[in-house]
Amino acid sequence: MPRLSWRERFTAFRATLLLFAIAVIISLPAMTGSGRDLNYWENFMRFAGKFFPPDLSVTPTVLVALGETIQIAVMATFFAAIIALPLAVAGSQNIAPRWMNLVTRMILNVIRTLPSLIWALLAVAVVGPNPLAGVIGLTFYSIGYLGKFYSDAFESIDAEVSDGLRASGANAVQSFQYGMLPQVKPLILSHVLWMLEYNIRSAAIIGYVGAGGIGLLLHTYQEFGHWDRFSTVLLFILILVTTLDLFGEWLRGKILRDD
Amino acid sequence: MPRLSWRERFTAFRATLLLFAIAVIISLPAMTGSGRDLNYWENFMRFAGKFFPPDLSVTPTVLVALGETIQIAVMATFFAAIIALPLAVAGSQNIAPRWMNLVTRMILNVIRTLPSLIWALLAVAVVGPNPLAGVIGLTFYSIGYLGKFYSDAFESIDAEVSDGLRASGANAVQSFQYGMLPQVKPLILSHVLWMLEYNIRSAAIIGYVGAGGIGLLLHTYQEFGHWDRFSTVLLFILILVTTLDLFGEWLRGKILRDD
Amino acid sequence: EPGAAENAGRPSAASQKLVVALKPDKNPDQMMEERQSLSKYLSEKLGREVEVVIPVSAAVINEGFSNGTVDIGYLSANDLINSKDAELLLVGEINGQTTYKSYWLALKDSPYDSVEDLKGKPIAFASKTSTSGFVIPLWDLKRRNLLGDGNDPEAFFGKGNVFYGTGYLSAVERVLNGQAEAAAVSYYVLDEDKHLSEEQRGRLKKIQEQGDVPTHIIAIRSSIPAAERAALKQALLELNDGANTGLRDRVVTSKLVEAEQEAHLRPLKDALSVLPK
Amino acid sequence: MIEAAIKNAVEVDGLEIVRGGRSMFTEMSWELPDGKFLAVTGPSGIGKSSLLACLGGRLRQHHGTFRLSTADPRQVGVIFQNLRLSRNLSVLINVLCGQLGSQPWWRTLFSFPAAERQRAFEIMCELGIGELANKPVRKISGGEQQRTAIARVLYQSPSIIFADEPTSNLDAGLSAKMLGILRNQCDTEGKTAVCVLHDAELVEEFADVELRLDSRVEHGWSLRKIR
Amino acid sequence: MIEAAIKNAVEVDGLEIVRGGRSMFTEMSWELPDGKFLAVTGPSGIGKSSLLACLGGRLRQHHGTFRLSTADPRQVGVIFQNLRLSRNLSVLINVLCGQLGSQPWWRTLFSFPAAERQRAFEIMCELGIGELANKPVRKISGGEQQRTAIARVLYQSPSIIFADEPTSNLDAGLSAKMLGILRNQCDTEGKTAVCVLHDAELVEEFADVELRLDSRVEHGWSLRKIR
Ligand SMILES: Nc1ncnc2c1ncn2[C@@H]1O[C@H](COP(=O)(O)OP(=O)(O)OP(=O)(O)O)[C@@H](O)[C@H]1O
Ligand SMILES: Nc1ncnc2c1ncn2[C@@H]1O[C@H](COP(=O)(O)OP(=O)(O)OP(=O)(O)O)[C@@H](O)[C@H]1O
Ligand SMILES: [Mg+2]
Ligand SMILES: [Mg+2]
Questions:
Q1: Do B129 and C69 lie within an 8 Å CB cutoff?
Q2: Do residue D171 and residue E142 have CB atoms under 8 angstroms apart?
Q3: Binary contact (C54, B216; C-beta < 8 A)
Q4: Sign (positive or negative) of CA dihedral B237, B241, B247, B250
Q5: This prediction's pTM
Q6: Is E173 domain-assigned?
Q7: What are the C-alpha distances in Å from D161 to residues D11, D128, D149, D195, E98?
Q8: Order of strands across the sheet that contains D22-33
Q9: How crowded is residue E67: how many other Cβ atoms within 10 Å of its Cβ?
Q10: Closest CA to D161 of D139, D122, D189
Q11: In what order do the strands lie in the sheet with C217-221?
Q12: I need a surface site. Which of B126, C119, D6, D125 has the fewest CB within 10 A?
């Protein structure tokens, strides 16, 4: 029976696993605990107890803030979802030329490196503190994520079909549109929905720019120790997150089976 | 030539686009600007100018903090990458039974809904303020993301091969391992690398729990307007982010073409 | 009782590492640099290992008090009010007092002399969670009967005229670049040279001060036994001795003095009652 | 009906399959005893693959019933028209996947037992794909992929084999060899094969019965005994 | 050599292809004039698809050269052994993709011109897949998919066609019909076809020349003129 040589066994994937294992071993000091004898369960229950029961009396405030947040998140996700597409195409090694990959990926890396706070401050510096600044800040931030996710998705699938189209003379855009996009459509949709969820969930940016939203509410309730109100906000976020998640699941099923 | 009926044209995908368009229109008020006549370019330059030149004198502090952050991020990503896998399998409608999907997705939704601060507090409440708390907090947080990304990826690919294996008697784990995992391996790797990057980049949790790291540095420099030091931290983060990105690209190429 | 130290069968308190948690205050930059010196100082004084941690959120310190993993914490009066398992040990003293003032700042050449003049003008609070940059100024407005029933500052300053920043700096910057007429901040933004340049401070004036704002507090976990508490208090008070004041001033508010918890927190407790939901 | 009376591998009774609103055939009834080889023929798009999918339980019939002699999925092997191999796994692993159902999942988590690997390898050698063992499926030729799918089913060693055009990408010599192996298993081991074939010569040579799907005849199907 | 002298569609000179360290054939030299039909035959795994991949520019040869009469990719059509259709797009769109190269990208961004759709549909009807126009490719039968790939190439209307086992999933009648259409395009429109075939009868019936790959003969290949 043919045996794999040592070199054949040592694939890039396995080398990566090994590398990761080494990183984990080096990082073991991070596992240092308090060294004290703690009653974990009791501690957990004491903490969790603060959040119950949720103080539903703040519901109107929360709903207004959620409304503001959703509006800004929807706009930003919309712009980012569109702008990220050509960027991702330019950043995928199986679609665009190498130099273009590198330039685009560098841009996306810079965008992701800047924290959301900086995007917010930048937007405020340019257009002043208002919802528009929130939209601009979140849009950039989201482009950094979606651009990467899209192009990772493009690079992770078999490019056979689009290569076939190129062979018959189709240009890059066409072979992408007809050979690749149909394959990754469900993935792209998942990513956009996740981005919307992320933007709603953690729209701290919106608080930074002074446009209110739930980010600010959460911060305030936390600073003043109103954990029961805090949990009311979380409750509404959970409902939203779950709705988006179920919707995404339904949509993926539909696309793969029926459309 | 056969024509598509109205109902056939109105696929789930197009309905979603329509829905999204409506959401965008409803959200238009978020585009309210300051209404003043601003010199955008000048504003932008004034803001960006603050960051240059980076104050490299803080390099030693930054590197120490980065080291702490990386250690914690590596451990958390490692645990999350492993724990999220069975959860994602249980949460995918094309692998596990429906009730299990719903339960698992609900758990993942709750995990994602809780802000990183809450995970940090929870971890501190249980084990005290130390690096271990950082690892625990980040691990949960990351499970919420990776669990969703993995299972979205599983749901987005054709389940033909694994269905074929099930038909010949393989159980759920086996048909997943041999029929599905080989297809999504590049995607999973991308997601894990992104998670590591995310954890390093925005390890606010690590700052919350008092384990130091760059989260604390960024917070401090911002609070006191040391933007030139802030940009030094960003510079090092950018180097890390780019390294991980290039590594991921190389690995995806290797897996798809050679392994 | 969550306190770990007093339970039989657990390691005795003195053999345990002492955990000191500092919430980043006026200068976390220095705080971080002094982390090692502080732990060295305390461990020499106490003859036991000391670890200094700097959690960004006071909620973390309070959780540590509750489960017995934090022994000493440096936090604001507001944070101590939220804490159920810690008590005041010492407080900081500024200019001979254990309180300080909150200021309304405006440009030097502006026509305002008191908050009443700011009616209907765009203003900036430091942030919605700031004590001296929001809670105390709001309380002051309430006492002057300038707020309506909802305690909403927009009732006085006008709709859309109230801005909340991300800290003192962001609020003052709005005044400096003309987007707001005045900002509510802590006294030290104007009186000390931590946040602003000499030139920037030269362009500003105080139009009114309000307070008192309780200074930051060194709190101790309630479950720590009296004897150990006394030793810790002594060690911290010795930071006031000549050779140690440098370290003290870089880490905490300056001089550490004893105070009575209820009395120290009362002004803030009263002020918090005006917060809108 | 008494259980013991069943000695047929497959029994079809009044079957009708509808695909996309179109009925493929109606009132299909036939029986296939153990050890027989049934060839399914007919023009493209007539419903051959659909019939196999239905018998394999992956497609619900519209009318009628059918019954297999075994309810154990491990005893039913399928060669799909589009093969359904794991393109990124090696040929050997793909073949070994045929027996996944007979091994508990923890035995197959990291690798397969050496004895199993050996047995799979021998089958592969018989089909002429032995030296491809460690190549990923995406890097072998079309005919080699088809033989991998055949090897997987032979390694699974089920009592009923459904094969959908198993030799479409093979030359005449190899086609005959593959069908000969299947035929031999029917004769000597009592296995049963239902095999979609296009080539009339191969049908004559290897099949016991031909089931012809044809939209022009009544009910859309006809049965012909060959030997 | 003077440009004008070339009237061959394909010229191969001293070609050698190596795959996975194994040489498939060496010193292969032949010429195929415009309007001719070349059948490539040989056992599975011998290198037929590799030869086509090389001539189509997707695989680098190890030695030797080849030359096509056109350098324009739109004038070279390929039917891949594994088809390479977009499984989630409709049959009609897949066929229309054959002409992507002749349209600027903004014309194909939202849909294709009505006249083009009509022309593609007519070709599909000729191949018997007209009523599948709006079905996604993943929902049609294997033989229907194969005809979709053929329709795509016919719609592209290139001057050289490389077809890799274009009829493997089709019954005898349809196979003859498909090859007849190809043959007819060679005869009447001067197109050239290089087609991998397994069925000896079809080779005799349709091909002008047979290129047989066989590891037992010297250099691994032989050429035979049929008509
Ligand atoms: N992508 C590839 N990478 C490496 N080797 C390959 C690749 N594709 C095919 N091979 C090998 O090259 C040889 C020739 O393959 P090729 O596909 O050309 O055969 P073929 O004559 O078309 O066979 P078939 O009739 O089975 O399609 C085979 O042994 C195969 O294993
Ligand atoms: N997944 C599907 N969903 C809906 N209709 C399908 C699906 N698969 C096939 N069909 C349709 O059902 C009919 C029968 O398809 P089937 O695959 O059974 O044909 P076949 O006889 O196997 O043909 P071939 O010889 O081309 O493989 C075809 O008209 C086809 O378009
Ligand atoms: Mg079929
Ligand atoms: Mg081939």
A1: yes
A2: no
A3: yes
A4: negative
A5: 0.89
A6: no
A7: 14, 21, 12, 8, 38
A8: D22-33, D8-19, D63-68
A9: 15
A10: D189
A11: C50-53, C18-22, C72-75, C217-221, C86-92, C256-257
A12: C119
Question: Nearest C-alpha of chain E: how many angstroms from B2?
Answer: 7
Phi (first) and psi of residue D9, to 5 degrees: -75, -40
The verdict on residue E52 lying in a domain is no
Question: Containing H/E element for A184?
Answer: helix A181-201
Q: How far is CA D49 from CA C57, D46, D56, D211, in A?
A: 64, 9, 10, 13
Integer Cα distance of E181 and E99 in angstroms: 19
Structure-block tokens of residue D104? 């508990």
Is beta strand C182-186 parallel, antiparallel or unpaired with respect to C99-107? antiparallel
- For D116, the closest chain A residue by CA position comes to A1
- Number of independent structural domains in chain E: 1
Q: What is the mean pLDDT of residues D186-195?
A: 93
Joined tokens for residue A105: 């990926």
> For chain E, how big is the Rg over CA atoms in Å?
18
Which own/partner contact pairs does A124-127 have at CB distance under 8 Å and 24+ positions apart?
A: A124/A208, A124/A209, A124/A210, A125/B43, A125/B44, A125/B46, A125/B47, A126/B38, A126/B40, A126/B43, A126/B44, A126/B47, A127/B33, A127/B34, A127/B38, A127/B40, A127/B43
Compute, in angstroms, the gap from residue A95 CA to the centroid of ligand 2: 33
CA distances from B30 to A129, A197, A206 (A): 12, 17, 11
Say if residues E101 and A169 touch (Cβ distance below 8 Å): yes
Q: Tokens 């900036």 identify what position?
A: C124
Residue D101 belongs to some domain of the structure: yes
What range does the domain containing D149 cover? 88-157
Dist. CA A219 → ligand 4 center (Å)? 64
By CB neighbour count within 10 A (0-12 exposed, 13-18 middle, 19+ buried), where does A35 fall?
middle
**Please, do chains C and E touch (3+ CB pairs < 8 Å)?**
no
- Domains in chain B with CATH codes: 55-258 (1.10.3720.10)
pLDDT for E55-105, tens place per residue? 998 899 999 999 999 888 899 999 999 999 999 899 999 999 999 988 888
Q: What's the rounded Cα separation, in Å, for the pair D154 and D161?
A: 9
Q: How far apart are CA B199 and CA B214, in angstroms?
A: 11
A168 in Cβ contact with E78 (< 8 Å): yes
pLDDT in tens, A58-87: 898 889 888 888 988 999 999 999 999 999
Say if CB C89 and CB C72 are below 8 A apart: yes
Low-confidence ranges of chain C (pLDDT < 70): 1-15, 25-29, 276-277
Q: How far is it between the farthest Cα atoms of chain E?
A: 54
